[in-house]
Amino acid sequence: MLEIKSGGPEALLNKKTALSSNGDKEKIPYKIAFVVQRYGLEINGGAEYLCREVAEHLSKYFDINVITTCAIDYVTWKNEYDAGETCINGVSVKRFPVDFPRDLKRFNKCSEKVLCKVHSFDEETEWMKLQGPYSTELFKFIGDSKDDYDLFFFFTYLYCTTFFGLPLVADKAILVPAAHDEPPVYLSIFNETFHIPRAIMYNTKEEKDFVIRHFGNGHVPYDIAGSGVSLSEEAHSSNSPKEIIKEDFITYMGRIDESKGCGELFDFFRRYKKEKPSSIKLVVLGKAVMKIPSHPDIIYLGFVSEEEKYNILKNSKILIMPSKYESLSMVLLEAWYCWKPVLVNGQCDVLKGQCIRSNAGLWYENYDEFSACLNLLLADEHLRDQLGDKGRQFVDMHYSWETIEKKYLNLIERVI
């Protein structure tokens, strides 16, 4: 089946929405579960953040329950949240304990076998259990509650919550895979995962093309949404970047991790500074899970508020995204929302594709291209303004929350 076209959400709202006595719209009487490996205000990146954003926006229309674990850390899966039900920004969240934390030594040994050597299907399944987070109580709840929900959204293909949970309710499931060209996606255990849901919501055209090409699942109904952008423009932080950083700067936002290309970014930036001395700084925002090199021109600010993030993007020359593996880069959208151009790793089809479609960024595949692109962008303010304007137009056209909500409403209508 081909792409599900937009145009149906108004019919759904007209049929299912009534006005209450105070004039507000009542919720559509569907109960929908969002299943994700971890969930909370402290978790502000990747598929988990996308899940929270979509859940909060769709809670205007439906009764939404999030089904997740008690874990915060994606490396250890240690139970840190209390089990049970809580409410976050108006959304009900049900947490279940993880059976066991990740045994890193055993997981790494198993990963080496299944990702690099001849192995069996059972060994892949064992790898998935070690990947985590494995929660017997969560899987039991999903199976026992199948008739209590009209629909289940499963966020990201890569973890136990989807792998073991989705088959229990496949005839009511929509997968949001957040898939990209990485070693685990080639494991045979995922063939079923991409064939059995009622529908799939992709984040980008590149993700959709890759998944259909690899899994041959073009018969599964789909749409392409991504995430809306909701940065606060009320930038009234007392710590503006002009007070923190006196010189010009470029910005990286996200998890500071080798897997995100940060090691290469630090190496490239230090080499660039050595070859082309200047006052330009690299400002780094996010959680560090690798060592950040000590360098006078690399400024690590850790986590910042939404207002501070907006201030930093607004005052940055460009945003750099060095990752090779992305299914959607929300920080690119946020940079474009702030009229800023981007420089991305051209080995990532998704990032390169976003730049091509928006005409709002450049890309590199090696140090020489990194240096040349950075020189061009830093030297030409007019070019930066042109690219930034194109980026804002692209976000306004394709990534407003109104647009994203309509895509989800349309897919929900078609499946239910």
Automatic annotation (TrEMBL):
**KW Transferase (keyword) present:** yes
Keyword Transferase on this protein? yes
**Cross-referenced Pfam families:** Glycos_transf_1
InterPro entries on file? Glyco_trans_1
| Glycosyl transferase family domain span | 246-393
UniProt keywords, alphabetically:
Transferase
| Source species, domain of life | Archaea
User: Which GO molecular function entries does the Swiss-Prot or TrEMBL record give?
Assistant: glycosyltransferase activity
Q: What is this protein called?
A: Glycosyltransferase
Taxon lineage: Archaea, Methanobacteriati, Methanobacteriota, Stenosarchaea group, Methanomicrobia
